[in-house]
Amino acid sequence: xxxxxxxxxxxxxxxxxxxxxxxxxxxxxxxxxxxxxxxxxxxxxxxxxxxxxxxxxxxxxxxxxxxxxxxxxxxxxxxxxxxxxxxxxxxxxxxxxxxxxxxxxxxxxxxxxxxxxxxxxxxxxxxxxxxxxxxxxxxxxxxxxxxxxxxxxxxxxxxxxxxxxxxxxxxxxxxxxxxxxxxxxxxxxxx
Length: 191
Hints:
Layout: H1 2-13, H2 18-28, H3 45-62, E1 66-68, E2 70-71, E3 74-75, E4 77-84, E5 90-101, E6 106-115, H4 123-126, H5 129-142, E7 150-159, E8 164-173, H6 174-190
Parallel strand pairs: 6-7
Antiparallel strand pairs: 1-5, 2-3, 4-5, 5-6, 7-8
């Protein structure tokens, strides 16, 4: 379900046609098309299509000025990073989407999530180490365009139990990145 919704969001952000959006979502679906998902009764393919219809309706309201960034002529979707931590250890991550605001000259990471939770609290996403690691990726790809000491992460969450989208917006500082790197190095020492 989550992969189909994520594929639909990508397709909408790329301004694809309704047929192309459907096709992208269909290819991401991993069980028979109209079968309910085995882990959650509310996560059918039809539910995924309805979620994307709702996303289309709110897209301009929540992403005003932000569009998918392009690097080397390709959209910044599922961008991977691999950080060499020395001694044979690597930190590997994948950002769902990197957005760019031309007026502000800034990049922002978009993470697309789905949840069956009845309540979505900031704490579920705000303290994610996953998002802090993206600051290293942004430093590498943004070069001199990203001048701030912080960067932002959007969490776009479709709540299946509430049948609605929620957007969480968090800033991550360079000091948080330093703490994150230190924690990873300590983990490697323990290993």
